[in-house]
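User: structure tokens for this one?
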Amino acid sequence: MKAWGHFCTITHHKILVMRGCFKIGLYRQGLLHDMSKYSPVEFLVGCKYYQGNRSPNNAEREEKGYSLAWLHHKGRNKHHYEYWIDYGLEKEDGIIGMKMPVRYVAEMFVDRIAASKTYQKENYRDEHPLAYYERGAARLGRMIHPDTAALLHSLLKMLAEEGEERTYAYIRNVVLKKDFPY
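Assistant:
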């Protein structure tokens, strides 16, 4: 039963992201989004720790102190800011977040909406992804590039204030254009 529940949850999430990506013109990213979740290292952990109301990776992390599934996932999916963490150009920089290509910031935005819809179901509201981001943003520090953080935050704020369709149209018609000042 847990395996079926996990499969349905990740597939539902993937379909929501695909629809959102299609609305903003990211067809390839929509089709390929989160395919690693079906790999054994991620899927089997998801089945074991499935609860239906939050990521199974959190439960794995609570039990083991780390999540092997998450480490695998973030290393293969460019829409996660954690994928873009690297050493800075200067020695004193240490490990920092690199500026993400705008198309992956857009996919990350859609991913956050889909995750909120998947776990909050009928209680979802357009302000939920922003609230979730703001609760965790203070902990991000240097792990997300300031420009990436600013763009994501502005899109989440627009979603909360103007709704999904207007924000998707803005991403498609402004953000994803070559001359967007990012």
